[in-house]
Amino acid sequence: MGEVAGSPQFTHISVDDFRVVYANLTGGNRVTTGRQVPYCLFTDPELARIGLSETDGKVTGILYRLFKVPMEANLRARTLSETRGFLKTLVEADSDRILGFTAFGVGAGEILATVQIAMVAGLPYTTLRDAGLTHPTLVEGLIPLFSSAASAHKVVDTRRAQTSAA
Ligand SMILES: Cc1cc2nc3c(=O)[nH]c(=O)nc-3n(C[C@H](O)[C@H](O)[C@H](O)COP(=O)(O)OP(=O)(O)OC[C@H]3O[C@@H](n4cnc5c(N)ncnc54)[C@H](O)[C@@H]3O)c2cc1C
Asked: Are residues 90 and 15 in the same domain?
């Protein structure tokens, strides 16, 4: 289990490998495939990611809506004078399912966890958009992100783009 087994090289993944092995030794039936692999680079500012990226979306040809706002739209980031970066998310075009999320900015790793929980629970992006998140927190910045549909909403039909480019 862990790195020696070829799992993604993160502490939380090695720990999860242990949980999978332990669960299976005690009668469970868990696997390591198909699980979420979130990560955070603790740079300044942080870069945190989970799920499908734009690059992945282009490769797989999945239709998605792209939401993106600068960290300047995050009121807590403004009070911290840390407005570098952005929040970005991919939502499946035919549903409200969150496919992936990227945060580049102050507290990115903490913001990521909220989106991950929504993804684990299978919540539509509208649940986060419509939640009354505490002001002023960094997580509150998810509201302008998921409300940015009017200005940043974009369905990228990568299958069509690939066809016309061929
Ligand atoms: C500088 C650095 C920073 C990192 N930062 C992060 C981070 O911020 N977040 C994150 O998620 N991951 C981070 N990682 C990666 C993370 O540390 C590893 O993915 C994780 O420790 C892997 O856990 P593991 O149990 O598979 O292996 P390890 O933690 O390497 O554990 C293997 C253990 O086996 C022991 N061992 C080796 N050979 C033998 C032997 N022959 N007999 C007995 N024991 C042996 C070793 O001493 C060690 O204790 C970082 C890694 C590095 C190097």
From this structure: no
The number of distinct structural domains making up the chain is 2
Sheet containing 98-105: which strands, arranged edge to edge? Answer: 39-41, 46-51, 98-105, 86-92, 64-70, 155-156
CATH number at residue 65: 3.30.390.30
pLDDT in tens, the chain (166 residues): 999 999 999 999 999 999 999 999 999 999 999 999 999 999 999 999 999 998 887 777 888 899 999 999 999 999 999 999 999 999 998 899 999 999 999 999 999 999 999 999 999 999 999 999 999 999 999 999 999 964 455 666 666 555 433 3
53 and 31 assigned to the same domain: no
pTM: 0.90
Q: Which domain holds residue 16?
A: 1-35
Candidate from 1, 4, 7, 10 with most ligand 1 atoms within 8 A of CB, to mutate: 10
Q: Does ligand 1 lie within 6 Å of residue 9's CB atom? A: yes
Instruction: Let me know how many helices (H) and strands (E) the chain has, helices first.
Output: 8, 6
Residues 117 and 55 in one domain: yes
Active site residues: 135
